[in-house]
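Q: Could you fold this chain for me?
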Amino acid sequence: MSTSPPTASPPLADVSLVRRWRLSQWWYFALLPAAGVDTFAIAMAPDGLSPTTLGRLLLASGAAAAALALGYYANAIGDRTMDTSAAKNPLLGRTLPAHWRLELAALGTTAVCLATLAGGPAAGGLALASCLAGLSYSLGPRLKRVVGVGSLWNLAYFLPLLGLAVDLDPGKALAPQALAFAGLLLGNQWLHEAADREEDRQGEVRTTVLALGARRTAVLALLWAALSLLAVRWALPAPPTSAAPLRLCALAVALLVAPVALVGAGDVPTAMARARRAQRLTGALAALLLHLEAHGHG
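A: Sure. Below is the predicted structure, expressed as structure tokens.
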């Protein structure tokens, strides 16, 4: 059975914005700006969550959503001739409208403006950096084609989103969560590359998994997991709470999903897709526990 895109080129007009911007694939990442804010303490404060704080958190989350929509839309545009699943890429085989560049520009402008309103010029700069990373990853110069750089460039796209609301609760609390997220994100990217290896090969995208193979990438993922865990432990504020060892163990479990899966079934796309879901679930739990630890809640 052929896996090539359909020969017809239906217009993009019948694809809703929700599908075009691939909302179902990134909505949970819009919560990243809350990572640097002690939401537990804010919620438990005598006066509760003030309208000003809530408004700024919502603005930061909106900025993250706009940057995510831009990046995922750009990726759908760049990969529309190499992807093989319309469920994954709603633009598969479709004709792009003349205004698609304006649509990307509007998303980027929205992200920067909302971030600036939420956290000032520094937050606006972080949103701009994220948008530029998303565009350069998938479109010009399409850095996803470069071995190693494509994997690492996801960090440049996602990590700035964690700082969009950090001035609401300044301090060192964001560092361990950013390091943990970097560890989980890169492991998840390698699982993604393993699942999409055939599409990437046909589209002449040289990923880390294609260059090294699944087992060598698993070794790299294991080393990255160990480095991430050590960095998170070093970055945690002192003194640690009594629950710190358990929380670090939860992070270790999430970090180990990628190397274990790559060793066991790195050449099976469906297994890699399941591993990505497992890593997201364990990673979300670890992130919640680490959020409490970073802010000193035992």
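A (continued): The two ends are 56 Å apart (CA to CA).
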